[in-house]
Specification:
24 helices; two-stranded antiparallel sheet; three-stranded antiparallel β-sheet
Length: about 575
């Protein structure tokens, strides 16, 4: 080169520059201590005190960062650490653990739970924490703990440091990240050898899911039946179903739209998506509209004081889902012999319903809904970039909703409408329909009708589904003595029921004429089936025509011969006979 040596780019220098640039690139979360800040300037007005009223309001907001259950879990994990240090490394316990003062214990914002000690986070020796995790990775049953179980101890330390306004050393983050990545590989090997202690759920298949619903009805457990159907159709965690309330539902074009207040990954509720839930008019066992109608009817009294479907307002937010999980566990134990024909009994839990519905949606047809729609319905992240830039429209979710309802995606019936009212212009203006609505859902309508969460539209669809599936309800009530279905008031009013049956339809008439969520191949299936029907009719007509042509030719030949005065075989047969 002709450039001076000072301007030449030597390989070593260039590589060092590349490494320097790459080291500055940031991906993922940036922690507060890693941000570009200026602490050299004094805070303006630092000596001005905030009023007690405003301080209380600020604290009330900041307490929403984490629910009480998670705070309690973190405090218990921190307690596990310092108790282990006390017995195993007493020298570090003396310098790494602090006793809380009375003033600290009285600080409600710290949420010490039952602890009177805490870790010292500034200058924390990460080697001690890694030693504790190495101890915890071996379970008492000889198996290896899951990666999640150990990661939660790290989460507890990060939360504890943040709460105490202490900064962990850089070495903690570097060494802990390295350890957890390596431990994930270790759990993979343990899983391969069958030595991983995990609570992984096997996906529940559609066949098993229908059996679960049937088992629930046979045991007269309406709560389990309704809850399971909603969880399957929403592809939800049980906690999301447990807190559903009337304001979470609204009527769609030919479906019911469900929207959570928040999700596990979105506590603010800003990114939760609509779930389009469809009915299955051909299979009452899995009919979500029927299940909701039965629940609103039998539990009508509960809605006098709350709009929550399952959760009692005075109980903890997880009470309804915990009740469901315990009842599902009991059901699995009662039907263990049948259950093990489908999944591993020790991997059967409520999360399997969520995984099962996702599996059916993605593998039930060679033309499944978009993966993005499945991820959106299940509130699963596809990564920071895609979550930020991909905004999902309704068509994918509506198609997904029909598959989750159990409709056959390769048959023209996939595009069917739900049972709906009515063959009248104004359903609530019809005396019989109005009578049935108040007979079935009187308490709900009186308490919430006309309010911001008015459920009349939802209840109208539910009533139509009950009328459409009345034979299923009656058969179940007759087969199982004392079944809750027998308490549905409409079933004992034969005259009213007979008149309502004349008004219910699944055809595109009345006020519901458009079916949503229909992919193009269903239209093709309908056209192909129509073409096959025309071909079949044409074939039958040709067969009949062939015989007719033969008879017509024979008759014409006989007539012509008679005109000529000649004898035919048929005339000779007639003369002999």
């Amino acid at each position: 080169t002709n450039k001076p040596k000072s301007q030449q780019h030597h390989p070593t220098t260039r590589n060092q520059q590349i490494v320097a640039v790459m080291s500055k690139r940031r991906t993922g979360r940036i922690r507060p201590h890693e941000r570009d800040t200026d602490n050299s300037v004094e805070i303006l007005g630092a000596n001005i005190s905030v009023s007690a009223q405003h301080t209380a309001a600020v604290k009330a907001t900041e307490r929403q960062d984490l629910n009480e259950k998670n705070k309690r879990n973190y405090r218990n994990r921190i307690k596990h650490i310092y108790e282990w240090l006390e017995t195993t490394y007493p020298e570090y316990y003396k310098v790494g653990v602090v006793e809380l003062s009375e003033a600290q214990l009285e600080d409600e914002d710290m949420f010490w739970w039952k602890n009177k000690l805490d870790l010292i986070y500034e200058g924390m020796n990460v080697g001690m924490i890694k030693a504790f995790l190495a101890f915890k990775k071996q379970k008492e049953n000889g198996k290896c703990s899951s990666h999640v179980q150990l990661r939660k101890y790290n989460d507890a330390i990060l939360w504890g440091a943040k709460t105490c306004h202490q900064r962990l050393p850089l070495s903690y983050y570097e060494e802990m990240d390295k350890f957890l990545v390596a431990f994930k590989k270790e759990t993979t090997m343990a899983r391969k050898d069958g030595m991983l202690d995990e609570q992984e759920a096997d996906p529940i298949t559609w066949t098993l899911f229908r059996k679960i619903l049937q088992w629930a009805l046979d045991r007269k457990n309406i709560y389990l039946w309704v809850f399971s159907i909603l969880q399957w159709n929403c592809m939800a965690r049980s906690i999301n179903i447990g807190v559903l309330a009337l304001h979470c539902f609204r009527v769609g074009e030919d479906c019911i739209i469900v929207r959570y207040d928040k999700s596990k990954a979105d506590q603010t509720g800003e990114k939760v998506s609509d779930k389009h839930v469809y009915d299955n008019p051909f299979d009452p066992l899995v009919s979500v509209f029927l299940a909701l109608g039965v629940w609103f009817c039998l539990e009508s009294a509960r809605f006098e004081n709350t709009e929550s479907l399952f959760q009692d307002d005075e109980n903890e937010v997880t009470a309804a889902s915990q009740r469901y999980c315990s009842q599902l566990t009991e059901l699995f134990k009662a039907f263990h012999a049948e259950l093990v024909q489908f999944i591993r009994a020790d991997h059967a839990n409520t999360h399997g319903i969520r995984k099962g519905s996702a599996t059916k949606a993605s593998s039930g047809t060679t033309c499944p809904p978009p993966v993005s729609s499945i991820a959106s319905r299940g509130e699963w992240s596809m990564g920071k970039i895609l979550d930020l830039y991909w905004h999902f429209a309704e068509p994918g979710d509506t198609y997904l909703g029909r598959i989750l309802a159990g409709l056959e995606p390769n048959d023209k019936s996939f595009g069917s409408l739900p049972p709906h009212h009515w063959k009248v212009g104004n359903p609530m203006g019809n005396a019989k329909i109005q009578e049935a609505m108040f007979l079935m859902f009187g308490s709900v309508l009186e308490r919430w009708g006309g309010s911001a969460v008015d459920p009349t539209g939802i209840l109208m669809l539910c009533l139509a589904s009950i009328v459409w599936n009345v034979d299923f309800l009656k058969e179940t009530a007759a087969r199982i003595p004392g079944h809750p279905f027998g308490m549905i008031p409409l079933l004992s009013n034969a005259n009213l029921l007979a008149e309502l049956k004349l008004l219910v339809t699944i055809e595109s008439e009345g006020h519901m004429t458009v079916a949503t969520g229909i992919p193009p191949h269903i239209r093709q299936a309908v056209l192909i089936k129509s073409t096959l029907e025309v071909c079949r009719e044409t074939f039958e007509a040709v067969k009949l025509m062939a015989g007719g042509v033969k008879d017509a030719v024979k008759k014409g030949f006989e007539e012509k011969v008679l005109e000529c005065g000649q004898m035919t075989g048929e005339q000779m047969k007639d003369m002999i006979v």
